[in-house]
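Help: why these numbers?

___
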Amino acid sequence: MHTGRRTFLAGLTVLPLLLSGTGARADTRLTLGIMPFNSALALLKTHQPLRQALEANLGLPIDVFTAADYTSFVRESLAGRYDLLITGPHFAVMSVEKGYVPLVHYHAPLQPIFVIRPDSGIGDAEALRGRVIALSSLFSISSIGGMKWLADKGMQAGRDYHVREYPTHGAAIAAVAVGEADAALTTHTPLKQIPPDVRSKVVQLPSDIRIPHLMTLAHRRLGDKRIAALRKALRDFAESPAGQRFFLDTGYQGYDPVSDADLQALVPYVAIVRQQMELETP
């Protein structure tokens, strides 16, 4: 499924890069990049109602892309490769600095939670000492938020617990279900979107962290008129039967506008992910 940089989800066909980074095709079709928080198949299935509604409302076809990993996706986003983005709130702040306009974020609060097996004996954060914690990515907001929460309690990765990365939230949760990991850091919405047989094998150990949820953005190159049309199209989708079903099935609950306070609250998390990416850059 992966091109190495970008995976084209529409029709489940893998294509090479379609843009030069200038957004030259925006008059005839739009590109939507979705952060790879789930498998490509799951992302396509989940977002198909949104894609269809936006296409009908805007009168333009929309090509949907994801990437093989968070790092590739963020690099593509910051390079302006997508006309539209659905991305983590910390990545959204970084994208705003590179020419994107925040449109909405999901109403549901993004709460990092630890997923454990019912018989694990883990009842609080202290019981995670010495355990293996599965992550979807070191760069995901759930991972950053959860590890910051543990750090605030005096626990450091590599010293007090061990982390193991998996390609997606679903894979990290499945690792707990089959006993490969003791806990997984995720959020409520991926937990709702995984297969019921996997979900039935785990329970939640909540944290008290609250972060603005995934954000939808448009690149400024689309122009004020088209960005206004996108805002209206998203409102119309949220009020439609298809949109209401989408928010019920995903647990996202609806759309809220992105405020300056939302962006400001994410600054500490943005600083952490920037530091991690700089450390990993040759």
Observations:
- Residues 7-109+212-280 form a domain with the D-Maltodextrin-Binding Protein; domain 2 fold (CATH 3.40.190.10).
- The chain has two domains: 7-109+212-280, 113-206.
